[in-house]
Design a protein that fits this description.
By secondary structure, the protein is mainly beta. The chain is built from one helix and eight strands; from the N terminus they run βββββαβββ. The protein has a five-stranded antiparallel beta sheet. Strands 4-3-8 form a three-stranded antiparallel beta sheet, with no helix packed on it. It is globular and about 40 Å long.
Length: 124
């Protein structure tokens, strides 16, 4: 299986608790979704495709099959978070922009007590 792009927006980002799962994977840079979604937070972030509120800001990685399987296990794909292909634009280290398809983990099980992240960027 060839490597695939994954867009992360929460605890998998650099400096966050689950980032170790992406060690050794290719970090491409800061990215944002082309389309608008809704982000909510209650301890961890949730992105819903049911609402188009804002572009989501995160990081783009190039991962192998083993890494993708580990991410799926962490996210409970497809029962808790569901991984789907979306379009993202990434700012590369060279300063160039790259738009590509990447996996993003959506969740439709958003707690009623969650608050909306209007900026689209999860910060602990």
């Amino acid at each position: 299986m060839k490597k695939q792009y994954v867009f992360v927006y929460g605890t998998l980002k650099r400096g966050y608790s689950n980032h170790a799962l992406l060690q050794g994977c290719g970090y491409l840079g800061v990215a944002q979704t082309v389309d608008k979604f809704a982000m909510y937070e209650r301890g961890i972030p949730y992105v819903s495709k049911q609402e188009n509120k804002t572009q989501i800001i995160g990081e783009l990685y190039l991962v192998d099959e083993l890494c993708l399987n580990n991410l799926d296990m962490l996210e409970g794909h497809p029962n808790w978070y569901k991984r789907e292909l979306i379009n993202v634009t990434c700012i590369l280290n060279s300063g160039d922009f790259k738009t590509t398809k990447a996996w993003l983990y959506f969740n439709k099980h958003i707690p009623s007590s969650a608050t909306q992240v209007t900026s689209g960027m999860y910060i602990r």
